[in-house]
Structures are given as structure tokens and as C-alpha cells.
Design a protein that fits this description.
By secondary structure, this protein is an alpha+beta fold. The chain contains three helices and twelve strands. It binds 2-acetamido-2-deoxy-beta-D-glucopyranose (NAG) (5 copies). The site of one 2-acetamido-2-deoxy-beta-D-glucopyranose has 4 residues, from strand 8. Keywords: Membrane, Transmembrane, Transmembrane helix. Its main location: membrane.
Length: 219
């Protein structure tokens, strides 16, 4: 036993070390691949604002119909949504360039829910508004411009356990025409203003393990 080790110690140690780091590296890579998560894709599918429907000729009914789609594109990870806060703004004079011309007109909350992998969900609501200058919006001459912002916290479900919390903050402008419908007929995606952190990134800890493994192998 000790004899064998005495003669061949260095080389067997090297081989052992090599396969150990290789296994560690491959395991890390595999773990990273299977732990990688993508944020859900959110979009407005439909909008109807009866007060802006010129044919109705009335701004008495002041609710907004909004149809949101939640698309979990992860192949094998579920998503837990905390309560979802939504705010709507109206751009005075239809201008999106001046931030001060944006006024809050509505806010509401969608109850949190769980969404399985590869699943889509719709949330359709009639929401109350306040402070919209309806006459100006109807007679504005062009399209009325609004903004929707959505804030929530999500956690991913991987096999039997939950990841840590991720803040999800997305939004988009949308335009409404003379019959009160969203100008773009296709879905309008809500996007994040800031670069998305903590999602799909190579974990620093695993990176260090792989890096030091490589150093050992090539030394
Ligand atoms: C606008 O109002 C008219 C009159 O009530 C109605 O026929 C029409 O369907 C409305 N437009 C939309 C997009 O609902
Ligand atoms: C719209 O309603 C106002 C009063 O509510 C009326 O004076 C006007 O004629 C109506 N316009 C049309 C096109 O029906
Ligand atoms: C914007 O609209 C307000 C009233 O809503 C008006 O007083 C102002 O002149 C408008 N500004 C521009 C640049 O059109
Ligand atoms: C939410 O809406 C209510 C009125 O419905 C308003 O008083 C409140 O200030 C709004 N909150 C935010 C954060 O906009
Ligand atoms: C949603 O709004 C509630 C009440 O204003 C607040 O307590 C909560 O932190 C908000 N959620 C997020 C994700 O900002």
C-alpha cells in the first residue's frame, strides 16, 4: 500500500486532482444550465376605454378595460408571483417626451398566483380612473397616450424548492384611438427599463470554483 504510493505518488495525485476538478467543473456547468431562469414575458393584449369612443359621444363611463398576459417561457420552472401592483398614467397633450406631462390616473392590484412552466395566464379587469382630462383626451386631435407600469416580486420553483425573491419592474406606453381601442392590434410587451439582474447570470460562486479548478489542472 505505502509502497505503491511511494513510487507513483505525484502522478496519481495529479490524475486524481484532474478528474476531481473536471467533475467539479462539469457539475457546476450542468447546475448553472439547469438553474438558469428567465423572467416571464408580460404584455397588454387588449385595451378598451369607452370614454374615448367618439361614437358613444359620452365620457360618463370612466373605467378602463385592460387585458394582461403573463407568459412563463421557462421549460421546467414554475413562477410564484407576489401581489402585482399596476399603475396607469396619462400623457397630457399626447407627449411622451416631457416627463412632467405624465399624470397618474389609476392603480390596482392583481392577486399573487402560481404559474406552472410553459404556461400562459390572462388577467382581464375593468379599473377605475381619476383625474383624466377626458374632454381634452377626446378632442386632442391625435391618439391619446397612456403608460402602464407593473411592479411585483417573483420566485422561481425549481423541482421542490423556491429561489430567492426577484423584483420585477416593467412598463410600456400605449396609444388609444378614436374608438377607445389600443392603436397597435398586436400585444404590446412590457419591458424593464434597467438591465435585469440576477436572472440568467453565471453565479459568481460557481464561476470561482470552475476557475480555480482550471488553474489546478493547468498548473
Ligand atoms: C363604440 O361605440 C359604438 C356605439 O355604442 C359601438 O357600436 C362600438 O362597438 C364601440 N366601439 C368599440 C371598439 O367597442
Ligand atoms: C354629443 O352629445 C352632445 C351633448 O351630450 C350633443 O350636443 C352632440 O350633438 C352630440 N354629438 C353627436 C355627434 O351625437
Ligand atoms: C398642453 O395642454 C394644456 C391643457 O391641457 C394646455 O394648456 C397647454 O398649452 C398644452 N401644451 C402644449 C405644448 O400643447
Ligand atoms: C392609488 O389610487 C388612489 C385612488 O384610487 C389614490 O388615492 C392613491 O394616491 C393612488 N396611489 C398611488 C401610489 O398612485
Ligand atoms: C405593492 O403595493 C403595496 C401597497 O402600496 C406595497 O406594500 C408593496 O410593497 C408593493 N409591492 C411591490 C412589489 O412594490
Amino acid at each position: 500500500m505505502s509502497d505503491y504510493n511511494h513510487h507513483d505518488g505525484g502522478s496519481s495525485c495529479f490524475r486524481c486532482c484532474f478528474s476531481f476538478t473536471l467533475t467539479l467543473g462539469l457539475t457546476s456547468l450542468f447546475m448553472w444550465l439547469s438553474l438558469r431562469t428567465s423572467n416571464p414575458i408580460l404584455s397588454i393584449q387588449d385595451i378598451y376605454i369607452p370614454a374615448l369612443n367618439k361614437t358613444l359621444n359620452s365620457t360618463d363611463y370612466q373605467k378602463i378595460y385592460i387585458d394582461l398576459k403573463f407568459d412563463n417561457t421557462n421549460k421546467d420552472k414554475g413562477i410564484y408571483y407576489h401581489p402585482i401592483n399596476i399603475t396607469l398614467h396619462y400623457y397630457i397633450n399626447g407627449s411622451t417626451s416631457i416627463s412632467s406631462s405624465k399624470i397618474p390616473i389609476s392603480n390596482y392590484t392583481i392577486r399573487g398566483f402560481y404559474q406552472g412552466h410553459n404556461k400562459k395566464a390572462r388577467r382581464k379587469d375593468w379599473v377605475d380612473t381619476y383625474g383624466v382630462p377626458w374632454e381634452a383626451a377626446v378632442d386632442g386631435g391625435g391618439l391619446a397616450v397612456f403608460r402602464v407600469d407593473l411592479t411585483t416580486v417573483i420566485r422561481f420553483k425549481i423541482l421542490a424548492w423556491k429561489t430567492k425573491k426577484h423584483r420585477l419592474v416593467v412598463g410600456t406606453d400605449f396609444e388609444v384611438d378614436g374608438v377607445g381601442k389600443k392603436e397597435r392590434k398586436k400585444g404590446t410587451r412590457l419591458r424593464s427599463g434597467a438591465p435585469e439582474l440576477g436572472s440568467g447570470q453565471f453565479p459568481v460562486g460557481l464561476g470561482l470554483v470552475v476557475f480555480s479548478g482550471l488553474l489546478l489542472v493547468f498548473n
